[in-house]
Amino acid sequence: MTKRIALLKMTVLAMLVALGVVISPILRVEGMCPMAHLINIVCSVLLGPWYSLLCAVLIGIIRMAFMGIPPLALTGAVFGAFLSGVFYRVSGGKLICAVIGEVIGTGVIGALASYPVMTFIWGKTGLTWLFYVPSFIGGTLIGGTIAFIFLTALSKTGMLAKFQHSLGAKVYDKQRRADTASAKS
């Protein structure tokens, strides 16, 4: 990876972290944080699963440290962020698979992982294993839908492939790949 691409990736990551920290508390529904899921999916598609995981961890730590958010900021984001990127890559670049990865990772795995953290570490009583599942799935469906619409619009204009190419990511759009290959020769 060239220094230029590495710098560009870090810049995009920093912007997504900043955006996630700022919009998550503003555009939220009680018990849901759909904008975090939007950021997770966009980061997964643009940068991949490891950057998306890092983005979710950084947003969670910043929100917990400066906004007094409970550990749900981490348990509810990291699994979906990573699985979104993995599902996107494994599917060969299908946007819906990135959304499905977020829903499964956050809506199910993250919700189930939140129970012991909130009960045994945070001391919250009266919870069941499935307590967080409905709100986490609801949040992922809202954020996932917004991300899907946004990324589909970018894809139709060819901008998604250009962004991915600029960031050194694998470009799944066949036409853009052909244009890039002919430009190099």
Structure description:
It is a single chain. The chain has nine helices and no strands. The protein is globular and about 50 Å long. α1 packs antiparallel against α2 and α2 (34-47) packs parallel to α5 (78-90). It has helices at 3-26, 34-47, 49-67, 72-75, 78-90, 95-121, 133-157, 159-166, 174-184. By secondary structure, it is mainly α.
Question: Summary?
Answer:
With 185 residues, the chain is mainly α. It is 78% helix and 0% strand.
What's the order of the H and E elements? HHHHHHHHH
Low-confidence stretches: none
Q: Please tally the helical runs, counting DSSP H or I stretches of 4 or more residues.
A: 9
Largest sheet features: none
Taken from the alpha-carbon principal axes, the silhouette is globular
